[in-house]
Design brief:
Blueprint lengths: L2 H7 L4 E3 L12 H15 L6 E4 L6 H11 L6 E6 L6 H6 L13 H14 L6 E6 L4 H4 L9 E6 L10 E3 L5 H11 L6 H10 L4 H14 L3 H16 L9 H17 L1 H10 L7 E2 L1 H9 L6 H4 L2 H13 L4 E3 L4 E3 L2 H10 L2 H18 L10 H8 L13 H17 L2 H19 L4 H16 L3 H18 L5 H16 L3 H19 L4 H16 L3 H15 L7 H17 L3 H18 L5 H16 L3 H19 L4 H16 L3 H19 L4 H16 L3 H19 L4 H16 L3 H18 L5 H16 L3 H18 L5 H7 L14
Parallel strand pairs: 1-3, 2-5, 2-6, 3-4, 4-5
Antiparallel strand pairs: 7-9, 8-9
Length: 837
């Protein structure tokens, strides 16, 4: 059986979004053969993608379609992705999830990562083909290309793909291919000479030939008449000074189709011209309904206000094949080349009017709340049209609000890099048009500060937020909503820099301002209180943090419009406060529920879900469930590593969490390697004097002691204790934990007097900030009782040990690992798990 006959008999298990096979596909045999040979050769080694490069309209897409159909029997899984807009590629990849057997995920970024991992693993499908059609910029697509046992095919006009992947050049048809195509398309009704004449006029461009063939077949127009009309239209079009990348023959064929419709249904052409100023991606049909009802300019108002007239216009556009309608997704689409021709043919003044109408339609059809998970799909559809429509240049307040809502949506879904790129562009263009102190510019700066912090770029966030806060206080009222918002953002940046007490002061100011402006139950007030609770937790006041968070949780849990992300954030912060208060089992029970909630409502790879998973793993370890903790923390660490890379605060925290879990499991070598790697990044990400940078040395010093290097551990803990005392105070959780381990270092070196002295000092410090029932107090007391006994104070040691064991039994349970260690007279160590900032 030949390869082609085998193809006809077989088919892939998954065949998704691949366009219909072109029954008129002609020629290209040499390209198909070269492509098959090349893609097989390359994939035999590293499964590299194959790029098809050439001018728009030369048939790259048709070649890719034919390849998929002709060789479909060689694949189990085939998926087509329209890659015109890089912002939509993650969504297209995420849509593969169900077909790959992945669980449902709301977060696009996280679902995308899961799909890439699954394709690269070769399970459940090893022979797969993913086609990225019209992927113009390699830099925007290369990170989404799966590298595994399957094949990737890329079509693009950009010759720079050859710098990244093996490339096959696709040119216009050879003349004989053009003639053969036209004769096949017209079922032999034209002769060789007429077909040659048409091909000459159309420059052998496959897309133009297809359009010409369709027109001739539909109208039965004689070739002589077609050529005459083409010549007339060409003369007029040439006067418009078309860009050289669009052949004049192609524009003539397109204009002919539009002119015929304009004579019959002028309203349809008006809608078509409007569609030309959207992006080339599908246009949601509801844009015309929702946007038209809310806000639209005078050009489209008569059409959009009349649903019958609008329906007629769209129906005629589809009938003339000028738009592609997708009933299942309720979208319309106009080919990019056709859009470009329409824009070029529109007078400059009218172009501005059409663009502005599109801006109003997009803004008017957008959901109100980007934090509402249920509205994310609508934002995703609209995002594709932001840049192509020129919306960023619009100065309309409602349009700019939509632009800012769109980056907020990207931020809350976890697409931080995409949000940053847009905000950089907003700030540059809006500053040029409206000035650096314009409220829209200042708002964009606050959004950018949020993104910087999410990317762990704390120095950049501080440089931006500190200036923005001052500008807002000068340009707007101190009690203006945006000024208060900037105040909260500045406080968050202070947290990122380790200035926890100062952050608490600023957040307290924001809470009071929000309460005056909006009341106690407004979403902005509740968010601000959540931030304040985080500050209290970072200053070791866990009881106050828990009290604030419980009140916010009760309010948010009954309000459906506040968003799943915010609810999970509140719940996670409350769970962390419970754990840090010493209620480990309660935190583990909560942690399981909130981790499940995050996976269900946001997706397994959403940043907030991963933070919930990290906290749950810590609670499992604290309750003695070490094996489960190692497994969950390892998975979480890998996901964060893939999402952010190694040099991100959340990845580093997960690495330390995994190190702590491995240490508890007795895997000291692996734990030490992780801790050492993480410690390398902390100074560069947070700074040498950040509390986290000092505190992570607690973990490394502990591993050094357990590995036998007690002297180095002691030196490291001494430096860490000095640094933490200076930054956060002697009675802080981190400082107390460091002193506990330093006390154990001294005891291991036989310096029991000094160990006792430090233990007594630490015990006094603990009780100024924590109750005697807090787990740190109990650990410190248990260790101190050992040093008291070693230095001859046996009676005092017995009394303290007995009191401490009662507290362990009451608050930790007699079977808790720390309780068992204290009962056996063993020293108990502490460690550090960096919380989110």
């Amino acid at each position: 059986m030949t390869e082609n006959s085998y193809s006809m008999a077989q088919g892939p298990k998954v065949w998704e979004k691949v366009p219909k096979r072109n029954p008129n596909f002609t020629g290209r045999n040499d390209l198909l053969t070269a492509l098959r040979k090349s893609i097989n050769t390359v994939t035999a080694v590293v499964a590299q993608p194959q790029a098809l490069q050439g001018l728009g309209g030369v048939g790259k897409t048709q070649l890719a379609i034919e390849y998929a159909w002709q060789y479909r029997a060689h694949y189990e899984f085939v998926w087509w992705i329209s890659a015109d807009q890089p912002v939509l590629v993650p969504s297209a990849l995420a849509a593969m999830g169900p077909a790959l057997g992945l669980p449902p995920a709301t977060g696009v970024e996280q679902a995308t990562q899961a799909v890439l991992r699954t394709l690269e693993s070769g399970t459940p499908y090893r022979s797969w083909l993913v086609i990225f059609d019209n992927a113009e910029e390699p830099e925007y697509i290369k990170d989404f290309i799966p590298r595994g046992p399957g094949h990737v095919l890329i079509t693009s006009r950009n010759s720079r793909w050859s710098d990244h992947e093996p490339t096959i050049q696709v040119d216009v048809f050879e003349r004989q291919e053009s003639v053969d195509f036209l004769r096949k398309r017209l079922r032999g009704t034209v002769g060789e000479a007429d077909a040659d004449l048409i091909a000459e006029k159309l420059g052998d461009l496959p897309l133009a030939l297809e359009q010409a063939g369709a027109l001739l077949a539909r109208t039965l127009m004689p070739v002589e008449e077609y050529v005459a009309l083409l010549d007339e239209q060409t003369s007029r079009l040439l006067s418009l000074e078309k860009a050289p990348m669009y052949p004049q023959s192609m524009t003539a064929a397109w204009q002919l189709s539009v002119s015929q419709l304009e004579d019959r249904v002028p309203e349809a052409v008006e809608v078509l011209r409007c569609c030309a100023f959207f992006g080339p991606e599908p246009i949601p049909r509801d844009v015309f309904r929702r946007g038209g009802n809310r806000s639209v300019g005078p050009r489209l108002a008569p059409i959009l206000s009349d649903p019958i007239l609008l329906a007629s216009a769209l129906s005629n556009l589809e009938r003339y094949a000028l738009v592609k309608a997708e009933p299942n997704t309720r979208t319309l689409q106009v080919h990019r080349l056709n859009q470009a021709l329409l824009r070029d043919e529109t007078p400059e003044k009218e172009r501005g009017e059409f663009r502005h109408e599109v801006h109003l339609l997009l803004a008017g059809s957008a959901p109100d709340n980007p934090d509402d998970t249920s509205k994310w799909a609508s934002f995703e559809e609209l995002a594709a049209h932001l840049r192509p429509s020129g919306l960023i240049d619009c100065v309309d307040p409602g349009v700019r609000k939509f632009a800012l809502d769109l980056v907020r949506y990207m931020y809350v879904r976890g697409s931080y890099t995409q949000a940053q790129a847009l905000l950089d562009e907003y700030i540059e263009k809006w500053t040029e048009k409206s000035g650096a102190r314009h409220p829209n510019v200042l708002s964009a700066r606050v959004h950018l500060g949020n993104v910087y912090r999410a990317l762990a770029l704390y120095d950049k966030a501080y440089d931006l937020d500190s200036v923005t806060w001052e500008l807002m206080r000068e340009s707007l009222r101190h009690d203006h909503a945006d000024t208060i918002w900037a105040t909260s953002s500045y406080a968050a940046t202070l947290r990122g820099r380790g200035e926890f007490s100062r952050a608490r002061e600023v957040d307290q100011e924001a809470v009071e301002a929000y309460e005056r402006l909006h009341g106690e139950d407004d979403i902005l007030t509740l968010r601000s209180r959540n931030n304040l609770a985080v500050d209290y937790a970072l200053t070791s006041d866990y009881d106050q943090a828990r009290e604030i968070l419980q009140k916010v949780y009760r309010k948010v849990s009954v309000e459906e419009n506040m968003g799943s992300r915010f609810f999970l954030q509140i719940w996670s912060n409350l769970n962390r406060a419970v754990r840090l208060s010493g209620r480990f089992q309660a935190a583990a029970d909560m942690g399981e529920d909130l981790h499940t909630y995050g996976g269900t409502h946001l997706g397994e790879d959403h940043p907030n879900t991963l933070l919930a998973a990290k906290d749950y793993a810590i609670s499992l370890r604290r309750t003695g469930q070490v094996g489960e903790a190692v497994e969950l923390m390892r998975d979480t660490y890998k996901r964060l590593q893939r999402l952010y890379g190694d040099r991100h605060g959340d990845t580093m925290a997960a690495a330390l969490g995994l190190s702590n879990a491995l240490r508890a499991a007795g895997e000291l070598e692996a734990a030490g390697q992780l801790a050492e790697e993480a410690l390398l990044y902390y100074p560069s990400v947070f700074g040498d004097d950040h509390p986290f940078t000092h505190a992570v040395r607690i973990n490394q010093a502990l591993l050094l002691r357990l590995s036998g290097d007690v002297a180095t551990a002691r030196q490291m803990n001494q430096r860490a204790l000095a640094g933490l005392t200076e930054r956060v105070g002697r009675a802080h959780d981190y400082t107390v934990s460091c002193a506990v381990n330093l006390q154990n270092d001294l005891a291991a070196l036989g310096e029991h007097d000094r160990a006792r002295q430090l233990g007594e000092e630490n015990y006094r410090a603990i009780r100024t900030h924590f109750s005697e029932d807090h787990y740190l107090s109990m650990i410190c007391a248990a260790n101190l009782s050992i040093d008291l006994r070693e230095t001859g104070a046996a009676e005092e040691a017995d009394r303290l040990h007995a009191e401490t064991m009662k507290r362990f039994a009451l608050h930790m349970g007699q079977d808790h690992p720390d309780s068992l260690a204290a009962a056996s007279g063993l020293r108990i160590d502490t460690d550090f798990d960096p919380p989110p900032l």
